[in-house]
Amino acid sequence: MLKKSIFAATFTAALAFSHPAVATIVLVETNMGDFEINLFDQTTPKTVANFLTYVRDGSYNNVLLHRSVKDFVIQGGGFRYSGNNTNPFTAVTPRGPVDNEPKLSNVRGTVAMAKVANSPNSATIQWFVNLENNASNLDKQNSGFTVFGTVQGTGMSILDSIEDLYVPATGKFAGVPLRSYSATDLANNVAVTASNLVTIERISIINDSPTTAANLNPVPNTLAGSSDSSGSGSSAPTLLLALAALAFWRRRKV
Predict the structure, then answer these.
(1) Is 238 helix (H, G, I), strand (E, B) or coil?
(2) How many angstroms separate the CA atoms of 4 and 200, rounded?
(3) pTM
(4) Considering the domain boundaries, does residue 12 fall inside one?
(5) Are strands 89-91 and 79-81 parallel, antiparallel or unpaired?
(6) Residue span of the signal peptide, if any (predicted)?
(7) pLDDT at position 8, please?
(8) What is the CA radius of gyration of the chain?
(9) Mean pLDDT of all residues in 116-125
(10) Which parts of 92-251 are beta strand (E)?
(11) Rounded distance, CA 172 to CA 190, Å?
């Protein structure tokens, strides 16, 4: 009996180790403040599993929030600062793409996966936070963008403060939110340093219950199947979002 008990305990422990708990809440620590994301494990399981794989292996440690568009989105997850302003961005190597799960609406405070234009199932590592209600564009464009979580509590105040930062329109850091940096600095060719960038220091699991989103009431996406859910879309900001991964990859190689 003792041997059977020991075997059972060992087997149970091994099973638990090989199947880690599904996280529902993660903490995003940045040099502008921290915010929590409640993940929709039950609604978008493939996307959540994909996101958590990057969380667990440290892929999101010291990555940038590399794109900010006023009243639209803040995007990150795919690049680190190289320290060389000639080629300032180093891409984080992504895994394979994840299937699109456009079940929920891109309203303010939701977190969704970025992807390539005209390719609904191309999301890999980059994600964005909706700063406003972007449902009319993103719920149908490119077959819909997968919302897999929502910023909770007072977390949007951190994102709003990042949104208020200066964002150059030209140069190597075009589109990138910059701390303690201004248009005058850009005009005077003041060098951007690591301290000027908004960095995600780490993302960690703080609640591994798969049901903490049960009391939330996310808005369903009712537009993903509409006839104009093409890859190009008609909104300039939407198209930029879809092309963001390629644009920054090209910029890195210039």
Answers:
(1) helix
(2) 47
(3) 0.84
(4) no
(5) antiparallel
(6) 1-23
(7) 42
(8) 19
(9) 96
(10) 110-113, 127-130, 147-152, 199-207
(11) 13
Q: How many domains does the chain have?
A: 1
CA distance 22 to 53: 11
**10 part of a folded domain:** no
Q: How far apart are CA 77 and CA 164, in angstroms?
A: 20
Q: Tell me what pLDDT residue 225 has.
A: 77
Q: Does some domain include residue 14?
A: no
Which structural domain range is residue 200 located in?
21-253
Contact 126, 116 (CB under 8 A): no
Cα separation, 144 vs 164, in Å, equals: 27
Task: In whole angstroms, give the CA distance from residue 115 to residue 136.
Answer: 18
pLDDT reading at 22 higher than 70: no
Coil, strand or helix at 42: coil
Q: How many CA atoms lie within 13 A of 144 on its CB side?
A: 22
Exposure of 41 in the CB half-sphere (CA atoms within 13 A): 16
CATH code for position 206:
2.40.100.10
> Between these two residues, 147 and 227, which has the higher pLDDT value?
147
Q: What is the C-alpha to C-alpha distance for residues 11 and 67, in angstroms, rounded to an integer? A: 46
Question: Looking at residue 119, what is its pLDDT?
Answer: 95
**What span, in angstroms and rounded, lies between the C-alpha atoms of 38 and 149?**
5
Residue-wise over 88-107: b if at least 16 C-beta within 10 A, else e? bbbbbebeebbebbbbbbbb
Classify residue 15: in a domain, yes or no: no
Instruction: Give Cα 211 to chain centroid, integer Å.
Output: 21
- Would you say 187 and 71 are in contact if contact means Cβ atoms under 8 Å apart? no
